[in-house]
Amino acid sequence: MLITTQLITTELTDARLIATELIETEGRLSRPRQGGAGMLRHEELVRARLREYEREARHRRLVRRATAGRRWSWLARFAAERAVRARRAA
Asked: What residue ranges of the chain have pLDDT lower than 70?
């Protein structure tokens, strides 16, 4: 679980850095415009956060699938061993 937490933390940090770089490097975001200049920066921040949440959700789905696969593998191994024991006992 520690590795998973580190991966999620790393991904979130990377996403924040990318979002910050996008905001700082985009000329249209730093250049004030007439009427609604503040909204461009706000909208870009919202989009960056949404991308970050989507990336985190994809990663969590991947982790859940891997965990489910390990659980089913364990259950199948347990059932096979139990069947072997039942055949020996019979």
From this structure: 1-39
Considering its fold, how many domains does the chain have in total?
Answer: 1
Percentages helix, strand, coil for the chain, rounded to the nearest 5?
A: 90, 0, 10
Rounded-to-integer distance, Cα 58 and Cα 70, Å: 19
Cα dihedral across residues 54, 55, 60, 65: positive or negative: positive
Handedness of CA 23, 27, 28, 30 (dihedral sign): positive
Instruction: Quote the radius of gyration of the chain (alpha carbons, Å).
Output: 24
Res 56: pLDDT:
95
Structural domain of residue 68, as residue ranges? 2-89
